[in-house]
Amino acid sequence: MAIAQSIRCSHCGAPVEFTPGEIIATCRYCGFMTVIETGQAYNFEHALLLNKYDEKRIEEPVKSWMQSGFLKPPDLARKAKILEKNLVYLPFWVVSVEAKTSYKGIFERITPPIVKEGRIQKEYNWLVLAREAAGFPTREYDVPLEGKIPYDFRKIEGFAKVLNSEIDREEALEMAKQQIEAHHRFLLQQELDRIVEMSTEFDVKQAVYLHAPVWFIKYEYKGRSYQLLIDGATGNVIKGEIPQKGFGIF
User: Fold this and answer.
1) CB contact set of 93 (below 8 Å; sequence gap of 6+)
2) What Rg, from alpha-carbon coordinates, does the chain have?
3) Residue range 148-181, pLDDT digits in tens
4) What is the pTM of this model?
5) Of 22, 85, 93, 224, which cross-links 18 as Cys (Cβ 3.0–4.6 Å)?
6) Is 211 within 8 Å of 49 (Cβ atoms)?
């Protein structure tokens, strides 16, 4: 299949920016989505979480995080220097799915061991980052879905970076299924010593393509730099490196 090197938005005609590896691009001028391989419009629900912080106000949750928690140095908020504040709209697939896992296993922590059978049945809004080989802590990000709106390019700040998807809907569904199944296996391993049988069925309700604002903060403390990720929609810290005895830990 030939890969397009440059394409124009099928809605407004503006050039669509993308980099190698991206497969779904969003027009920065009108918000329409395009499949990069074909240049054709791609129609499905595309949502947006609004960012509530500008480059000055984002320092408030940063300082609040630095001042809280007994693991942090007591002078962190006072001596730390913010080096970079970058707002990035990350692409996610939010897979709404009901997962039913039937299982059979052996509980060996008593004598004699007993056989246990049962079912795990849960509903999820499972988050899949639509980027390849990314280290973003997806499982630690409690995405505030109640705040999502239809994608509106006019709500995107001019200084923000918007990343395109490198994963299509079908890939996202498969990844969600694999990750949920692994999660259910983990849950069973807390209750069973040996899993004999395990089978999971999935009922996928929908898959929403979502752009969410994340602030990537880089700060310096005593000559070393550390990273902090903040949810731009809520101000909550997603993950942060904490200085301790000259090195960073999460």
Assistant:
1) 127, 128, 130, 165, 167, 169, 172, 173, 176, 207, 208, 209, 210
2) 22
3) 999 888 899 999 999 888 888 899 999 999 999 9
4) 0.81
5) 22
6) yes
